[in-house]
Amino acid sequence: MVLLSLIATPSLTAQASDGSPQVALKIDLVSWGDDITGLSLKPGQSKTVTALGFRYSTPVEYSGSVLMEVHRSSTGESPKTAAPSADDLAHELHPLLAPDSNPAAGDAAKPKTGLMLELQKRREKDPSLVALAPLPASGCRRATVLLVPSEGSTFIAYVIDDDPSKLPLGQLRVHNLSSLTIAMRCDGKLNRELKPRESFIAPVQNQQMIYELAYKVGEEWMTQESNIIPVRGSEQTQMIILRSDNKFFTSTDGSKAGFLQIVTLRRSKDEPPSTGR
Amino acid sequence: MDLASFSTCSSFDFNNCVELENPTLYNVTTSTPSMDVRESWQTTLVKLQMRPGGSSSILRSLERFELDNGYYSPNSRSFTRAEAGKMTRPFPLMCYSFQVSQPGEDYKQFMPGSYELGQRGSTLRTFADFNLQAAIFHKPIASYNPPPYFMQSNDSKAQLPATPPGGDTGNNFTRNLVLSPLPWGRSSSGSNQTILFSVPSQIASIAQLQHADLTGDDRASSIAHQPGNAVGNSYAPPFVERGLTTQLRTDFELIGAPNHTGTKNDARNYYDISYLLNASLWDSYFFSSISSSSTSAPINPALIKLDESSTSSAGLSDPVKAAALLMIDGGFNVNSTDKNAWKAFLASAKHSKHSAGPVDASDAAFPRSLEQISPSAKQPTGTTSDSFSGYRRLTDTQIDSLADEIVKQVRLRGPFLSLSHFVNRALAGITNQPALSRSGALQSAIDESGANINFAGDKNAFSGIRVDSMGSSVPPDRVTLSWKSNGPSADMDGGDRDERPPNLDSSHIDWAYTSTDNNFGTLASVVADQKMLVNYPGGSQYANEQGYRSTGIPGWLTQADVLQVIGTSLSTRSDTFRIRTYGESLNSAGSVVARAYCEAIVQRLPTYVDSQNVATDRGTALNVINQFFGRRYQIISFRWLSPNEI
């Protein structure tokens, strides 16, 4: 996962000591792919939340260290799925699927640095710890923590500052979480080039945004697509551009919808009440 | 539904879509509320027709797109009871999209990771082998979908949101539809317009008929599986073996339930329509360019009246008599093996102005049409406006190379006994004469000179096209329809091997050998010479014969483009000759006492030697003298020469 080197900064590791700043804010745990069950922000919690694949579920009130711990109970509920019938099995698809690639798998042999090293140390004491999320230090009342599957049942946390003052309802923020430089033209006018991890507030007209997206490989710009996305006045919308082999982005036949993957996170003003930590 | 611009109709909202309602399918009382999409047997087909409002005439018909829903439940969406109760609006389970297969588009991104470019119509010579102005797009042989469309199916959770309360179509539904039209050539700075066809306001050359939709077969006219720019071009079509111009083949149509391996077999003739049109037109017709409003003189300055002093227009507007009254000023014999003559002839297109610019261009212009809207580029990109809405010019260096290659082709293929012999490819088996049967003399010369991309791929005129994509993110331009195991590669490939539809001819396998969900349809089945398929048993020595995806874009110089400019001056014989002779006077001893040299220029005229016949008489209408001697020669100049002029 390319995010590993982008997130694990030495300065944040240093903040993970006992004297780290304290914060209080509302957290949304979101999965980068399959739903992640049994999550809590404190070890041993009986009440857990499920991070849904690129959509919001129940927010969690959090107060504590700016380096937030995410724990996962070993008995997380499995989602119920319908059992296939005999007829289903007799006609099961046999598509040609490429072998699963797990970019993070090769990271196991690499020496840990930054947050990953800190996570490894803490997991020796508490194996339920699965991620460390560096929260915005101050002035933020809301954050989305995107959990990216990593090695050994752990997750890399990508934090989006969702404070309502920075992204009001009816607004759209575009995030480049890919490892490539991308370029967006919005409504045929605004041109923005985004390096990895950069984001910007995109213009919205008539509760929608028309965009053209390209990405840079070497010195060549490649066109990805044009599209239109709804940006409703009752929602806080985040458009995330990334590159992933996760099956969340993969069709039954093993195909994907392009070189880069695009997902949209929508938080409604009528969201469910948050739970305690 | 009313048609409206994409950006004004909330296209992402399912409430604006046609909805199939069947509430009995969904029962929230089951323990696991879940929905999926599936089909019985093999096929769900969609036919699209575009008609003007209130009219029965068809503008365009796209026949039998496959919407394979698969079977079983990988595309299912399961909900908690609470979520199911909130799901009050439609949500998507499958999305199918079809796009005209474009050179430059990396369709591998939209296919399963184990697929190769070539499957699902991802590499085709869309602009050379297909007719984008056709009314009827049908599904040939055992194709899975009608070419030249690339198919993408998507049921990923990322693209098809099933989030309560529903209503969103998902990104895939609106992808690349919002900006109309989508840039051609897949460049981020690509052209939003392409000019493929135009109706010429003035017609001088037969090759200008490349803009007319003259496609057709025994069933219909204006069909998609023949070249849109047919007249004047000569690329061998994939549907017919190289040695043929007409081939009876079988179109298969899956019958479906209750017999899922059953097919309806429909014998159909496939044609090399370019060959047939060229053979019909080039030696029998010409455009006099006599205006209907003014019959006194041709508009084409290369045509002059036989009697220039005559002010009479009698016969000029008569389609039979006009040829007898006109001559070509500067006619050129295509059998010439003089490189400099060809250079001079091609260079006659230099300094031609085109309204699209550039204004100061001195290079030779060979535009697809006068209606191109973008200027030519010194080096064509193959990806941006110069190549899709612009046109081509050739530099002096390129003209030199082209003349060189033309002479080679004349020596290889000549002497040409007719113009269509020069224009058309040779009819020969691919294993015997792959190069001569690939395209006509002029097109082969253009390609091999490097004005486009040559067969070997080591000469490439385009800055934005990669032949094999080595070390580049740009997808390769080669067409790579392929063979797998014991048949053409399936467009829906997978692990199924049983219950294939039967092949009619065991020596020519049309159905794929492997598939997923018993979909053995394959676009590669259209290739008549299966030795051209990548991975064909015994080696892929003919794989490059499939050509390049960019073939035929407006920036790809075609034979017809060149013939539009020079076609009016071509002939396969010379009508004007310079004759030199000498005479000697000998004395009684046999010694030369006097010697004289002279030169006459004689010209063949439309009139016969014996004026008993008129110029338009033919065959048995001719008397014996004219049958034997034919047309009259006239001495148009004579002079004595001095010895130092010899």
Topology:
The complex is a heterodimer of chains A (277) and B (646).
Chain A: H1 3-7, H2 10-15, E1 22-31, E2 36-40, E3 49-53, E4 60-65, E5 67-72, H3 86-90, H4 114-125, E6 129-134, E7 142-149, E8 155-161, E9 172-176, E10 182-186, E11 190-194, E12 199-202, E13 208-217, E14 220-230, E15 235-242, E16 261-268
Chain B: E1 34-35, E2 45-50, E3 60-66, E4 77-78, H1 81-86, E5 95-100, E6 117-120, H2 126-129, E7 136-137, E8 149-154, H3 171-174, E9 246-254, E10 263-271, H4 273-281, E11 303-305, H5 322-325, E12 326-328, E13 332-333, H6 339-346, E14 364-365, H7 385-388, E15 393-394, H8 396-413, H9 419-423, H10 441-448, E16 483-484, E17 487-488, H11 559-566, E18 570-571, E19 576-586, E20 592-608, H12 624-629, E21 631-641
Parallel strand pairs in B: 3-7, 13-18
Antiparallel strand pairs in B: 1-4, 2-3, 5-8, 9-10, 11-12, 14-15, 16-17, 19-20, 20-21
Helix pairs in contact in B: 6-8, 8-10
Q: Could you explain how this protein is built, in words?
A:
By secondary structure, chain A is mostly beta strands. Chain A has two domains: 1-74 and 100-163, no CATH class; 167-272, Immunoglobulin-like, CATH 2.60.40. Chain A contains four helices and 16 strands. In chain A, the strands form three sheets. In chain A, strands 1, 2, 3, 4, 5, 6, 7 and 8 form an eight-stranded mixed beta sheet that branches. In chain A, strand 7 (142-149) and strand 8 form a beta hairpin. Among the domains of chain B are: 6-174, no CATH class; 332-473 and 550-571, no CATH class; 576-645, no CATH class. The longest helix of chain B has 18 residues, at 396-413. Chain B starts with 33 loop residues before the first strand and ends in a 5-residue tail after the last strand. In chain B, 43% of the residues are buried. At the A-B interface, strand 13, strand 14 and strand 16 of A face strand 8 and helix 3 of B.
What are the defining features of this structure?
heterodimer; A: 277 residues; mainly beta; Immunoglobulin-like; 2 domains; eight-stranded mixed beta sheet; four-stranded mixed beta sheet; 4 helices; 10% helix; globular; disordered N terminus; B: 646 residues; alpha+beta; three-stranded mixed beta sheet; three-stranded antiparallel beta sheet; 12 helices; 21 strands; 13% helix
